[in-house]
Amino acid sequence: MRAEWHQITGQSHATVPPHKAEQRFDALVYIPETRKVTEAQNQDLMAPITEKEVREAIAVLHRNKAGGVDSLNNDFYKDCEDVMVEVLVREFNNIQRGAPMPRSFGQGIVIPLRKKGDSPNPLDYRPITLLTTTYKLLAKVLATRLQDILLRIIGEAQQGFVRDRLMENAILIMQAALDKAYHNGAEGLDDAPGIAMLDFMKAYDTLDRNFLYLVLSKFGFGRQFVDLVRRMHSDTTAQYLVNGELSAEWEVKSGIRQGCPLAPLLFIVAAEILALAVQQDPHLEGIRENSFLD
């Protein structure tokens, strides 16, 4: 199990050398100023973390969940909230100002869950990563703050993980596209419309971290936030828990973190570059999102 997954998470999956990534990025994609983070938003994003925010993050924790490597699970923080909240606020603000993160923040315990079927391939298991609740509380505060920014930088075609958007809208968009194609008609097979449906294989695990940091910078996120995200993904390790036994620890060099409240938001920011590239490519014809998002 560990050996197979180490090939996925133990190395970078970058397809462009780091020193050429920005040049290639600028040649493919243009991000309008109206889609970039404003100075005021950057200031709000990195404002001092408050007791209210930490309490709100604790409030949404679910009980009876396994803890991370420190064994301090959700129940501990919910039961000891009044004692721990001041400690957490102080620790989170120190980290935000550049203090080193506890080593436990970078450690994860991976529990593989079998998907449907009876495949012997370890890569067909669904990895569930147990991170420390302390880390997840910090990530939750940042994820909540990030929601206001996502409404500005993420296009309407992306409905998942953005506040006030519904996945049902994606179905309506697809139906509108099919309806328009049907009524326009086609003279032959070459003119017949088609829909490309793409799936990212091991999406979270193979996202190149340097590409993520570049995308955040291009969208106008401040250096302090980009550095914080970088530190949250530095010196990360994992151990597999199988049949009650832990594997040896190995360094995780690729991807965003399974189980992290920030992970889905960081992923859709990175994936937005693909959406922009498709929309801006003059050689691609067809229905653009603005044609039917009325």
UniProtKB/TrEMBL annotation:
This is Reverse transcriptase domain-containing protein. Transmembrane segments: none annotated. SUPFAM superfamilies: DNA/RNA polymerases. Residues 94-294 form the Reverse transcriptase domain. Signal peptide: none annotated.
